[in-house]
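In full, the data.
>
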Amino acid sequence: MKKKILIGILVAALIAGGSAGGAVYYKNSHQKTVSVVSVDSLAGQYYMDDTNLDGNIVTSAVQNVTLDKDMIIQDVYVSKGDSVKKGDKLITFDMTLVQMELNIAKLKQQQQEQNLNKAVSRLNSLKNGGKIEESDADPLDSSGSSTDTDTTSGMDSETASVTGIQQGTYLAAAVNPVLAAAIEEFAAEEQQTEEAGADENMDAVISDQTEENNEEPTVDFDSGDSEDTDSSDSDATISDSTDISGDGSSDTGSEFTDQDIDIIDTEPDKDSDIVNDGTPEFYQVLDGNTEPYTGSGTEEDPYVFLCSSAKGYVIAKGSFLNKMGAFYADGTKEPGREGYWYQLEFHQNDTVNDLLNRKESCTGYYLVDGGLLEKMVVDDSEVEFSLDGASHYDEVPDDGYDDGGYDGNGDGDGSASISRADAIKMQQTKIDSLKLDIRESKLNIEKLEKKLKKETICSKLDGTVAKVGDASTGVSEGTTFMTIKSKEGYYVKGTVSELMLDQVKEGTILNCSSQNGEFEAEVVDVSDFPVSGDNYSGNGNPNVSYYVYTATIPDKTVKVSDEDWLTISLTSSTESKGIVLDRAFVRSDNGVSYVYKDDNGVLKKQVLAVGGNVNGGYSVLVTGGITRDDKIAFPYGDTVKEGAKTKEASVSEIYGY
């Protein structure tokens, strides 16, 4: 009882001292609502059986070779002015970074599939009368109420309890030195109760734990060299851990210092820096000099790097990846190391709302094994980690669920405040979400596998090399690194909607019709990047990105003229069943289509399965991801984002009539 009273007093004092944080939370929780309308009221009709393209006849064609940030030039086989034939080698790439990205994507999918299996088992347990847990009542957070894995992983409940109190010492020190002293006394009492050897002082505890967590050498982010962590002096360790900005400053923003208060912490490298520095740096670019926010580089306690959400992505330089891969400058590995685990975290408004629980404000993260980098890469190479492709904490089902089904205790409802029917419904929602996450992961894997196939690029045309960039730096004028211009002849050129990229690709046969008759053309190239506008047709949907395609005419006897406009058709492989939605309500990024739908009063990004472009490109045939009973928002505007509160509206209100 004495302990409970003391905890209550301390918590009350800390809450009073954190009124400023409460004001921020109040502001965030009272954001503007976003109107949503039922899918059924928006659904339209499907009018077309064939998919039409626009195109025209041109007398020359070009093949452009572009470089992605993760594609490192290995060899260039041609020079400007060289003549090439179809099939000749042009350039090869070192795909080490792409392979690393593919491995990360596959591991992510495997984890999603494991989570799906757990969620299905949990659903079966609920349907068979298993106990209803309190966590079943939370549709957004399926990870229960357990502490973040990056702050308590590997600790039993007693150790975690004591550690939580000791971490709280830092917050108490900033609020009131009396509270700090009280917490220290209480923590010492708990430590004596837990351990038989209570005669050991806290410095020994810190030394023992640090030695256990650092059996192998770890990265020294001050010098860049690998060495054993020295934690024999707890005061020095705590002082060092407050300097996370890299400028040598350890100002806590309080008049109290670690000389004034005897601060106790069993994990000085993890949470002391979080509280002592209330404004940690969020990185846009990670390189070999980037400092971690916390962590020791193990799978259980990865290095954590806070990443800016300003551009929707963070760039990891080769120097950073090499360091996380435990590579020395000569390309050899650190003894006994395959790599360091690291976590890239994005947070809402680039702010960690709760300094002791980063999960609360985390909008996405990547947990990466640095050892996935198979070999050292050049320091200036880059990999882009996007916020859209990041994992989310609400994707992970609770490992504490009992998958054994019925527990033999009547209806098994326990003390949960949710009905069985609602628990089953919410669990089904989690399963549906995980299935879509897996589908999105598969699309990303397909994209990376397609990129891997570009390790060697050959000429698709008989022609001349018109442009080549600098092979040593990858620098070139404009956006293309290499350009091949065709010999004289007739070609078909036009644009294709992003929704049809799975149908119009290299080798696709187009059915063309001109004023002189009908003929076939074979697609030899589709641009890697969309054009700024639909340059080849005047009726393209402005809400869809378009890509340039080039096709050859195998039959040289076909009579065509330069600039002839063509009618081009494909036999549509689109399924006849689905929901036809106005294209304005469906967004697409990198070939992945999605909507923002209402999920129990808040917006959620929902990935869709689409059957293709219909009704002249102004509609999308949705074959999976949503039902007619769902409600979706117009997906544009500053307030439209995941987590925004929703309100139901009518179609007339949405369209403004």
User: Anything to note?
Assistant: The mean pLDDT is 74. Residues 420-452 form the longest helix (33 residues). The first strand starts at residue 34 and ends at 38. Residues 38 and 45 are 16 Å apart (CA to CA).
